[in-house]
Amino acid sequence: MALFNSIRMGASGAEGAYEIERSLRFNSADDTYLEFTPSSTGNRKVWTFSCWLKRTKLGTNTDYLFSCNSVSGNNGIAALYWYNYDNTDDLSTYFDTPSSGDPYGRVIDDSRILRDTTAWYHLVWQVDAANTTQKLWVNGEEQTLQSSKNPPNVDYGVSFSGNLMRIGRSSFGSQVFNGYIAEVHYCDGQKYQASDFGETDSDTGQWIPKEVDGLTYGTNGCYLNFSDNSDTTATTLGKDYSGNGNNWTPNNFSVAAGTGNDSLTDTPTNNYCTWNLLDYVNGGFGTSWGAGARTANGALEMTASGKNTLWHGTFFKNSGKWYYESTGWNHDQIKGGWGRSATSAGTEFLNANCFTLNQNGQYQSNSPTGTAGGTTYGGSISSSDVIGCAIDLDNLTVAWSKNGQWGDGSGNWDETYDNASKISITAGYWTPTHIHGGSSAGQCFANFGQRPLTNDPPSGFKTLCASNISTPTIKNPTDYFNTVTYTGNNASNDITTVGFQPNLTWIKQRNQAENHFITDSVRGAGVQLRAAQQDQENDDSATFDAFLSTGFSLTGTGPAKPQVNDDTDSYVAWNWKESATAGFDIVAYNGDEDDTISHNLGVSPEFMIIKSRESSNDWMIWHHSVIDADNKVLNCNNGDGVSTSGSNTFIKSSSGGSYNVSSSTFKLGSSALVQDGSSNDYIAYLFDSVEGYSKVDTYIGNGDSDGTFVYTGFRPAWILLKHSNSSEHWYIYDNKRNTGNPLNLELNTSTTQDDGTFIGPDFLANGFKIRNSNSAFSTSGQIYLYLAFAENSFKYANAR
Questions:
Q1: Which DSSP string corresponds to 432-483?
Q2: Is the peptide bond between 457 and the residue preceding it cis, with omega within 30 degrees of 0?
Q3: Which of 370, 574, 592, 748 has the lowest CB atom count within 10 Å?
Q4: What is the pLDDT of residues 408-461, one digit of tens each?
């Protein structure tokens, strides 16, 4: 039957967007699940299961999402679940039949791992056992599956009269899913695809849920939206809205007020902050930090057993006023407040980077463990108290409340927020932070607004959720940056999938060693430079003959053909649109000009790449975060770390020690790499961070394959990164050569190699996480540089 829903405004703010009202939280410690036993038999070979989910636990043995019981013995089992093969969290399917060799295990062919816990996934599982096929979509994209895992042509236990089916737990065991589930459709006897349940938002590029219309649910199908949380019965929380009346029975859920409430407003259309499972081990504390750390109850409960532990939220903010609550502090080593991202090696969440309140009512800013040395703020705190944590990033202060009363700075909880003691902080990106600094077991519960707050936030303060993130200047990043892959044809070849007319295109052959090809609209289409070479520019417009309104045009002639268009060869092209809005400018200048060069960014550049067009010189890279002397430089065409060049300077420093870069100019030094005093021409590519679209920054390695988490504020599409002080390449990863995590296809600017297999980061909805302990990415305490561009702003991002 057709379904209609009057809720029309989603978190994206798009007019007419469909909104999911509630999700249901599943927690293994509570043994929460839904079950249904059909009273009549439907189709046992064909079905479609669709749901949105947010994972909150990784590395468990098995997490069952959907399953049915066996018919006899183990025969007839069908299931969709996560299995932790070699600590990989593989999405798997299971079909048990009377024959030997039952297909089960990792089902996605390219080893894609769905382990992003910062946002929501949409999964659609279509099974047609009659034709021995199955299909799987993740966020609207059909996955390539292993054919060996296809279902044999037998009757399964789904839709079988008297046979148990479950959501969130194995039907034949005790393995429970951990996370949030929303918007469940089970269609008995029907084969639907992702586009029947979701669509791409034309404004943002995000895959979003849509109001379903005209679906057939069959005999035992259902639609569960968990919107009625007046009770935990089959006719309320488990109610079927398909019109079939196939209500599911909830088990062990709670809708009572408090930390145990499993009916929450964290949904795919309004993603909320949780504790970040991917960011609890940080440089500066040593390897013992994070050992024994756990989250539960939808990553809102923090627990630790016998080890120092530090947790951060999934949201970081650098402006605005924000509030969350915490309760259940069960001993004096629990502390809560706010932490700022690191600014240099060894300082992460130390010194002025962390402001937390301990159980004695003292705040601390320079001691991650213990309660000694705190400064009096309010009175003591018990496990039943609700602590309000407020941060005002417009006025750079933090403050705390207990049960709605704010601290006066003299040991009392007796003030309104306006009169409360406010502690000064420094500017930066801040996130909710909790610390367990003792050897005994610790526990506390956070509420970021996904359930009703106990106390009202101060006026003007907001909770940490997608709907409260400001609309980014660039709603759809692919309007300004896009990666495309294509196949050469040794003939006329128009690449029209970029989506805009590029001003800078960088092409690399993927299946053979070949030079990089970099061309831009300022020097002219096809006039190219080679990233791994010192060579001067060449006019290869006979091969790359035009920038088009939605891409570029290639031919089958010219000496540069192997670089961009050899027959059947694979290529990747990275494309940028020049715009101050997007923080990108291309500047051509002459070597005998005045050393002050004008640009059109409108803000000071943070990252510059400069190359002589007429001399065989190195590529110069200037990164604002680490070049602390005006004779230091990084090169694009070799793997050297930050190096010096005697008295020759690259970007001049001013008398105050800062660099002579401004919103309209940058001042060159005396090095011939950037200015030779002759008539030679130069090209400069200038970049600046744009909130929700691009980021120029650094991170600190931790020496572990469970590497550093880096918040960018967006789901990356492309990243260029390098160890700042070591002979390592500038590595490039993107979202088109690897459509899922982990990213293991690398190219680099220092060589002509083809796609190399070298695991680097995972791309996440809010940033990236290093997944390799190699010194190229993760030497403990060392600084790494990166330039990144977005696929989606975090406000509009799904889990990857």
A1: EEEEE-SSS-EEEEEESSSS--SSPPPTT-B-SBGGGSPPPS-S-GGGTEEE
A2: no
A3: 592
A4: 999 999 999 999 999 999 999 999 998 877 667 778 999 999 999 999 999 999
103-107, 269-273, 428-432: the lowest-pLDDT one: 103-107
Tell me the one-letter amino acid at 302. Answer: M
pLDDT in tens, 275-327: 999 986 443 333 334 445 678 899 999 887 656 677 899 999 999 999 999 99
Average pLDDT over all residues of the chain: 89
| Residue-level pLDDT at 268 | 98
Buried b (16+ CB within 10 A) or exposed e, 11-32: bbebeebbbbbbbbbbbbebeb
Total residues found in the chain within this entry = 800
pLDDT digits (tens, 9 = 90+) for 319-361: 999 999 999 987 767 889 999 876 444 334 444 478 999 989 9
Q: Please give the full DSSP string across 23-60, using - where no structure is assigned.
A: EEEE-GGGT-EEEE--SS---SSEEEEEEEEEE---S-
- What tokens does 320 get? 């605005």
Partnered with residue 142 across adjacent β-strands are 137
Integer-rounded Cα radius of gyration of the chain: 28
Query: Which three-class secondary structure state does DSSP give residue 674?
Result: coil
Residue 592, Cβ density class (10 Å: 0-12 exposed, 13-18 middle, ≥19 buried): exposed
Burial 537-553 (b: 16+ CB within 10 A, else e): bbebbebbbebbeebbb
List Cβ<8 Å contacts ≥24 apart for 437-441.
437/308, 437/333, 437/335, 437/368, 437/369, 437/370, 438/308, 438/331, 438/332, 438/333, 438/369, 438/370, 439/306, 439/307, 440/306, 440/331, 440/333, 441/303, 441/304, 441/305, 441/306, 441/330
Contact 54, 23 (CB under 8 A): yes
Q: What is the C-alpha to C-alpha distance for residues 765 and 270, in angstroms, rounded to an integer?
A: 13
Q: Are 540 and 528 contacting, i.e. CB atoms less than 8 angstroms apart?
A: yes
Residue (of 614, 674, 625) closest to 648 by Cα position: 674
The phi, psi pair for 779, rounded to 5°, reads -65, 130
Average pLDDT over residues 259-267: 97
**How far apart are alpha carbons 519 and 534 in whole angstroms?**
15
Cβ contacts of 573 within 8 Å, gap of 6 or more:
483, 484, 485, 486, 495, 498, 505, 506, 507, 552
Strand order in the sheet with 761-763: 709-711, 767-770, 761-763
Indicate the pairing of strand 570-576 with strand 481-487: antiparallel
What are the pLDDT digits (tens) for 176-230?
A: 999 999 999 999 999 999 999 999 999 999 999 999 999 999 999 999 999 999 9
Neighbouring-strand partners of residue 390: 323, 399
Q: Which stretches of 280-412 are assigned E, i.e. beta strand?
A: 293-296, 301-304, 309-312, 321-327, 334-340, 354-357, 362-364, 375-376, 386-392, 397-402, 405-407
What letters, b where the CB count within 10 A reaches 16 and e where it falls short, cover 102-125?
bbbebbbeeebbbbbbbbbbbbbb
Can you tell me whether residue 254 is helix, strand or coil?
A: coil
Does residue 704 sit in helix, strand or coil?
coil
pTM score, whole prediction: 0.94
* Cα 324 off chain centre by: 22
In the chain, % of residues over pLDDT 90 = 72
Q: What is the C-alpha to C-alpha distance for residues 247 and 233, in angstroms, rounded to an integer?
A: 9
Longest dimension (CA), the chain: 88
Which secondary-structure segment (H or E) carries 249?
Answer: strand 249-251
Neighbours of 442 (CB within 10 A): 28
pLDDT value at residue 630: 57
Place of tokens 């060049």: 645
Assess contact for 332 and 423: CB atoms under 8 A. no
For the chain, how far is it from start to end, CA to CA, in angstroms?
32
